[in-house]
Amino acid sequence: MQTSPARGPLVSVFIVSLTFWLACGSAGPAAGQSLPLRTIVNGLVVRLAGHAVIQNGMIMAPYQGLFEPLGIRATWDRGERVLSLTSPAGDQMQLRAEDPYATVNGERRPIPIPLVVVLDQVLVPIQWVAETLGDSTTYDAGTGTLVISPQITDISWRGTDAGLEVSIDGTGPLHAGSSILHGPERLVLNVAGAVPKVAEQIDVHEGPLAAIRASRSFSGTRLVLDLAAPIQYRITSQIPGRRIVVTLGAPAPPPAPPSTYQPSAQKISDILYQHMDGGGRVVVVANRPLQAAQRTLRSPERVVIDVEDAVFLPVKKFLDIDDGLVIQVRAAQFHSNPNIVRIVIELSRPSPFEVRQGPASGQLLVELGAAVAGGPGWPVASGPHGPVVVAVDAGHGGTDPGAIGPTGVREKDVVLAIAQTLKRLLARQHLDVVMIRDADVFVPLEDRAQIATRGGATLFVSIHAHASTDPNATGTQTFYANPMSQPLAASVVDEVARTSGLATRGASQASFQVLVDTTRIPSILVETAFITNWREESLLRNPSVQLAMAQGVLKGIQRYLSMPLAAAP
Ligand SMILES: [Zn+2]
């Protein structure tokens, strides 16, 4: 445990001087000065457990009570003389008495003044520790006031079925009070004790939210959400207090398609996304060629496409992509009379993009990143059977919950979770994916095959959970309609049984509508497990079992694709 020998004497001299000043309780100009310190941590006045000492402008303060308001866990090991700290973000720091280095997430870092134990007091260089763990500090020597504040480090938003969800993230617990102000309409959040480390103004222009303004206030941070119209909102806390989520709901239900269904209007029936290496492509499917206005917005990066005189038949749709470039694609009926459909593509970084007509009439393509000019044509990964595009169909959705388990777990929710996991696994293997639904929405059975076909699917996999009046029915099973799909059904049921540890019920022939509609391509339906079985219901909602099932489907597909060509269509 011996550190640099040169440091030893210096540390000793410092401890002697600290001991001296603490013992005398008098002020001195030289080494250390005991001082009456007022400490405000995350908006709370904290009474120190003993004297603080100032040394070369650095405050050495007893650690007790200073970290709790910041959500930092502190443990002092008296025997080892080590103080261990864990920040809410999971950063770890160890300070050993008299050691001029701290260990931060396993790395050694020099500390301006080492931790010391004086007269049974454990003193830490509090500003350095707090700032290293992400918080902000200010010290006013005139009033002897030290303020330690969590920082608001990120503001982001995404569309959800409940409305626009604005997330405010901080380095420590955030406490917000809120009020609505009128004329112009705005929602004001006072986050006491925290300081802003985000842009002063963020232009949003999505749904009801025009912009977010952040500023310092007397008590902490004032966030103003500028609204386009009066709305309802809800504030919740996540990640034990470190994130505040504001859900902005629409004032009235979105316009129903029939009321905006004008004979002259162009109709957009779907928005699809195709991932490719280094880029991607949003496909807007309509009944006739579309004209669109395009622009970009910053922080976060977005491409905004407005299609005038158009009706969006699904009313709204969100695709969570997260493929490295595209974070989310949102499409909604932005305005009625005149009708405008707005498509927002949220990106992780600025990217070239190009809007052009697609190969089929009524297709508008937004090509991003590597897909722009010179990129390959339709994105394809090649298997031994040619290009592979997997349609992943999460059963049920929206108003159709599917089967419901004994404790109320809904088939539509667990199969969506498995389908979305499968999408990520397939993308990682550079296999293209068409999601039949990527949110809790109702998609009519007869539309599912069409969506797959439009996306160029070469394989179709429908994910379900089995149901039975016999509560003891158990195991995993696959179905196929066309005999050419039997090898795929057989390898998938094998692999799912293996990865999930469930019994296999084999691959059976059955005429489910989605399978009958997709007989041109290998097409199967996977009954992952029995949601009506008490034990399998709890497995189905377990994320690690969902992952295992998705891995099983992926392995089954890969095994099928590596089979000799004779086994394929
Ligand atoms: Zn089902």
Number of helices: 9
Strand content: 35-45%
CATH class of the largest domain: Alpha Beta
Question: Which fold name corresponds to the CATH topology of the largest domain?
Answer: Aminopeptidase
- Indicate how many domains the architecture comprises: 4
The Rg value, from CA coordinates, equals 30 Å
Roughly how much helix do the residues carry, as a percent range?
A: 10-25%
Distance between the termini: 68 Å
Write the layout of secondary structure elements.
Layout: H1 7-24, E1 33-35, E2 38-41, E3 44-46, E4 52-55, E5 58-62, E6 73-77, E7 82-86, E8 92-96, E9 101-104, E10 107-110, E11 116-118, E12 121-125, H2 126-132, E13 136-140, E14 145-149, E15 151-160, E16 163-170, E17 176-181, E18 186-192, E19 195-196, E20 201-206, E21 209-216, E22 220-227, E23 232-238, E24 243-249, H3 257-260, E25 266-276, E26 279-286, E27 292-297, E28 302-308, E29 310-312, E30 316-320, E31 326-335, E32 340-347, E33 353-357, E34 363-369, E35 381-383, E36 386-394, H4 411-428, E37 432-435, H5 445-454, E38 459-466, E39 476-480, H6 486-500, E40 504-509, H7 513-517, E41 523-530, H8 534-540, H9 543-561
Parallel strand pairs: 2-14, 15-19, 25-29, 36-37, 36-38, 38-41, 39-40
Antiparallel strand pairs: 1-4, 2-3, 4-5, 5-12, 6-7, 7-8, 8-9, 9-10, 11-12, 13-14, 15-16, 16-24, 17-18, 18-22, 20-21, 21-22, 23-24, 25-26, 26-34, 27-28, 28-32, 30-31, 31-32, 33-34, 35-36, 39-41
